Amino acid sequence: MSLHVIVGAGPVGSATARLLAARGEQVRLITRSGSGPQQLPGRSTSGAGIECVAADASDEVALERHTAGAVALYSCAGPAYHRWTTDWPPLGAALVRAAEASGAVLVTTGNLYGYGEVDGPMTEEMPLRANSVKGRVRAKLWEDALAAHEAGRIRTAEVRGSDYLGAHAVSPFSVMVLPKVIAGGRGTAPADLDAPHSWTYVGDVARTLVAVAADEKAWGRPWHAPTPPPMSIRELAGRAAELAGAPAARVAKMPGVALRLAGLFNPAAREMIETQYQWQRPFVVDSKAATVAFGIEPTPTDEALRETIDGIRAQAAV
């Protein structure tokens, strides 16, 4: 039994903690509050085998202390959307420092922002040409970690996914569309409702993180978490309504001016403006490399949608 340290108890961090604990590994989950893994709807969880620690992971000394003796360090944290420029750099530096001091392989949960606006499906071989502030922040985190890897200071890799599906997943679809649709109302999104879009299941991100950490041949490069064929927001909403036993889905496009007006009062809405390119045209990820390397097939979209719906309903009941 080896020690695995996870920073962040959001959907991916929680899924990773549960996966490792189920395999009999020693798991230490670090959050500011010391909270445990988020519970899947309809399932009880005792947190058996998961040690929850309250600490600020951006504190290099504290993180180094909590990762001593670990074989793997998983970055699954998610600073508030409007605080990426201030919160990510010190956290990224602390993660590299802890990996260097402990010898643990650092596997980071990344995203697709760093590629910027591209034509065609995104692959791991594409250069990072971010065209947004948040994209440049994420690209810099990976470049710094990779530089430390190439210098022989640490061992690292990154697992990237598209917008998430799964219990507690947060995306414009899961926040602005899905709750309305399964309640029989009309969802709205600042997007081309018919553009193909990739949706990654959080459980598949967790499986890929664990597989990458265990395979030294996988280090020193990014991986795309196995992701099913893309579906437009309209298609995804229609399927969700069917699975939820709700009336036929009704969705509408939110005018750009409405998003800008919302941004005057809502930091999250304001931060969505610069990433509108992801929602106004096809946004598709090619993830076959990870499936070939690790034998991980993407979870069917219906299964991921069911879990997302159950999570929304469980939260509403509470």
Automatic annotation (TrEMBL):
<protein>
    <submittedName>
        <fullName>Nucleoside-diphosphate-sugar epimerase</fullName>
    </submittedName>
</protein>
<dbReference type="InterPro" id="IPR001509">
    <property type="entry name" value="Epimerase_deHydtase"/>
</dbReference>
<dbReference type="InterPro" id="IPR036291">
    <property type="entry name" value="NAD(P)-bd_dom_sf"/>
</dbReference>
<feature type="domain" description="NAD-dependent epimerase/dehydratase">
    <location>
        <begin position="6"/>
        <end position="215"/>
    </location>
</feature>
<dbReference type="Pfam" id="PF01370">
    <property type="entry name" value="Epimerase"/>
</dbReference>
